[in-house]
Amino acid sequence: MASAPSIPVTAGLPAEWRDFLALTKPRVMTLVVFTALCGLLAAPGHVNPVIGFTAILCIALGAGASGALNQWYEAGIDAKMKRTAGRPLPAGRMERESALHFGVGLAAFSVIAMGLFVNLLSAAILTVSILFYVIVYTMWLKPRTPQNIVIGGAAGAFPPLLGWAAATGRVELLPVLLFALIFLWTPPHFWALSLFVRTDYAAAGIPMLPVVAGNKATRTQVLIYSVPLALCAVAPWPLGLTGAIYGVTAALLSAWFLLLAARVATNREQIQELMKPERQLFRFSILYLFVLFGALVIDRMVFA
């Protein structure tokens, strides 16, 4: 396993609470918490509000721990990218040891609390999700292979599975499909982003697909992965796991996703500022998950 990339030592200013918050990647955490909450609310039965709140808090802290440990390890890489150079570590506002201790502390607390106050299954899944993101994705896959996002997509797919396990103490077909949905969503989502920030990844030496295979191949892969994504999104409806509210919403959203992916695949622009289809798909992909999971909760409440 490669050692953590090094960054120049800077004196910097003492870290403040905003820097520790930035380590947790709050924007990413929002999607994690939302999909976990939807998994919990869509699960059968009634969840004690205190236990439900504790589960979501632990999931949020686990996600924050993953973000902090990711930034601790990638501080040298972040310093080379315009998009991430302002983060606390590359900007010199915090020592790496502080980020490491913060991340490990959050991770340990979130797993222990989940096991003590929710259930052991959800604590085990949370442990796997943190270790997968930090060790398998951040340390192993990301610096070595352009398939980092494909395999590493599993790291961000755990939240709905976690929410369901926290509510029921078991894993069933619907949360597994939700896991697969986010797993398949991750490549087109991140490849759309990487197409218009390609120079950043190239400067940092990260072998993202556009860097090693070129824009044309990446655009084709975006469309290829969007097809099984659409099928997986709609699948719970014909399988009888959801009702028409979710099914129709999934079908319409997925059709639009496929249309945007097709526009990306046929785009031939090489200049970052002209990559409008890629930007549109990236932004829509975030809305796609929020609306899809929201529709799932409403559907389960109506048809439960």
Automatic annotation (TrEMBL):
Q: Which family does it belong to?
A: Belongs to the UbiA prenyltransferase family. Protoheme IX farnesyltransferase subfamily.
Please explain the role this protein plays, according to its UniProt record.
Converts heme B (protoheme IX) to heme O by substitution of the vinyl group on carbon 2 of heme B porphyrin ring with a hydroxyethyl farnesyl side group.
Compartments in which it is found: Cell membrane
Q: Which HAMAP family match?
A: CyoE_CtaB (MF_00154)
- Miscellaneous note of the record: Carbon 2 of the heme B porphyrin ring is defined according to the Fischer nomenclature.
Give the molecular function GO annotations. protoheme IX farnesyltransferase activity
Pathway assignment reads:
Porphyrin-containing compound metabolism; heme O biosynthesis; heme O from protoheme: step 1/1
Q: What is its main location?
A: membrane
Q: Where are the transmembrane segments?
A: 28-45, 51-73, 99-117, 123-141, 148-167, 173-197, 222-239, 245-265, 286-303
Write the protein's name.
Protoheme IX farnesyltransferase
Which reactions appear under catalytic activity for this entry? heme b + (2E,6E)-farnesyl diphosphate + H2O = Fe(II)-heme o + diphosphate
Classification of source organism: Bacteria, Pseudomonadati, Pseudomonadota, Alphaproteobacteria, Sphingomonadales
Q: Name one Pfam family in it.
A: UbiA
Q: Which InterPro entries match?
A: Protohaem_IX_farnesylTrfase, UbiA_prenyltransferase, UbiA_prenylTrfase_CS, UbiA_sf
